[in-house]
Design brief:
Layout lengths: L2 H7 L45 E6 L14 E5 L12 H10 L4 E11 L2 E7 L2 H13 L18 E4 L7 H12 L5 E5 L1 E7 L6 E8 L19
Antiparallel strand pairs: 1-2, 1-7, 3-4, 3-6, 4-5, 7-8
C-alpha cells in the first residue's frame, strides 16, 4: 500500500465527488444539461454551497482505497447533505441510532465500472441496502434533500474512483485507468456502520463526528481524525 493510500485512510472521507456542473443521473452525457446549485451559501470553487457545520452520512469501503485516484478515502454516500449541526436537537443522535439499528448489516460487491460526465466510479451490488438507508433518512428528515435537490432523480449509490479530468481528456484517461484497475475487481466489502462527518466550511475538509452501527444501536465516541478533501 502506498503512502498516499495510508494518508487517505486516515482522513474523513468526503461523501460526494461529482461536481454539479459535471454530473447527471442520466447515462448519456451528450443529452445532459448543466444543473444549477439549488441553494445559496459559501460555495467552494466547484460549486457545492457547503457551510460550516454541514454534515453527511457515508459508508467506508477500505478495500477499494488502493483503487481511488480522487484524493479521498473510498466511500459510498448514504446522504449528502444531512442536517447542519446547528439544527441538531437533543434527540438527533438517538434518532439516528434507532434508525440505523433497524437496518441489518450487509455486503456490497463492486465489479462494474460506470461513468458520470468527468467521473469514473464503481457501482455497488446490490444498491437496495444503501438506497433503503437513504430512504429511511429522508422519510424521517424530509428537509435533507439528497445533493441539495440538484439531481432529479438523485444520483444512484456509487464509489468515485477519479474525478479530475476535463471533458477533452476524461474518456481516454479513464479508459486507461479502467484497464489498469480492472484486474482488482471484483471487490467485496461488509458494511456494518455508517459514519456521520462534518465540515468546518469550504476548504476546511471534513472530519468524523460519530459512527452508527447497523443492527446494534451502539454509537461510537467522536473520533479526533481530521482532514479530508474540500467537499463531499
Amino acid at each position: 500500500m502506498s503512502t498516499g493510500t495510508r494518508e487517505r485512510e486516515g482522513a474523513a472521507e468526503a461523501p460526494e465527488a461529482v461536481a454539479p456542473a459535471q454530473a447527471s443521473p442520466k447515462s448519456e452525457p451528450e443529452t445532459q444539461t448543466e444543473p444549477e446549485p439549488a441553494e445559496t451559501g459559501a460555495a467552494d470553487p466547484r460549486g457545492w454551497p457547503d457551510l460550516p457545520g454541514d454534515t453527511a452520512l457515508t459508508i467506508r469501503v477500505p478495500e477499494a482505497n488502493p483503487l481511488v485516484r480522487a484524493g479521498f478515502p473510498a466511500h459510498v454516500t448514504v446522504l449528502y447533505p444531512f442536517l447542519n449541526t446547528s439544527r441538531f436537537t437533543s434527540t438527533t443522535h438517538a434518532d439516528l441510532t434507532d434508525l440505523f439499528a433497524a437496518h441489518p448489516a450487509f455486503t456490497l460487491t463492486f465489479d462494474e465500472f460506470r461513468r458520470y460526465p468527468g467521473v469514473l466510479y464503481l457501482a455497488p451490488t446490490p444498491e437496495t441496502p444503501v438506497s433503503a438507508l437513504t430512504r429511511s433518512l429522508t422519510d424521517r428528515w424530509p428537509e435533507a434533500l439528497p445533493y441539495r435537490g440538484i439531481f432529479t432523480p438523485p444520483l444512484a449509490p456509487h464509489l468515485t474512483l477519479a474525478n479530475d479530468e476535463g471533458p477533452d481528456t476524461c474518456e481516454a484517461a479513464y479508459d486507461t485507468l479502467q484497464s489498469r484497475l480492472a484486474p482488482s475487481l471484483p471487490l467485496t466489502s461488509h458494511v456494518d456502520a455508517v459514519h456521520l462527518i462534518v465540515t468546518d466550511g469550504p476548504g476546511k475538509g471534513w472530519r468524523d463526528l460519530k459512527t452508527y452501527w447497523l443492527g446494534t444501536g451502539r454509537v461510537s465516541r467522536p473520533r479526533e481524525t481530521y482532514g479530508g478533501p474540500n467537499r463531499p
